[in-house]
Amino acid sequence: MLVSDETLNGYRQSIDNIDAALVFLLAERFKVTKAVGRYKARAGLPPADPGREEEQIARLRGLADDAQLDADFSEKFLRFIIDEVIRHHERVREAE
Predict the structure, then answer these.
(1) Whole-prediction pTM value?
(2) pLDDT of the residue at 75
(3) Are 37 and 95 in contact (CB under 8 A)?
(4) Contact criterion met (CB below 8 Å) for 41 and 89
(5) Dihedral, CA atoms, 38, 43, 47, 51, nearest 10 degrees?
(6) Cβ(67)–Cβ(25) under 8 Å?
């Protein structure tokens, strides 16, 4: 039998709200990166930009440090997103 714990329920509600915000932010980010992929394909640019990727990772690591968030975790998270974006860009390029 679970006991109602208002403190725990309050924390969980906040986590649920944050998760929802993250999903919507990721959706918005991917809308923009899809447009970038279409632009790159039309312009004959490569799907990946290693220099930009490294700059973004360094920038995010700095932001993570400022926010007292594990920079290694932040880098893994951004690397996952970058890899997914590149995969999408490659598909767009193949379709063009």
Answers:
(1) 0.80
(2) 96
(3) no
(4) yes
(5) -130
(6) no
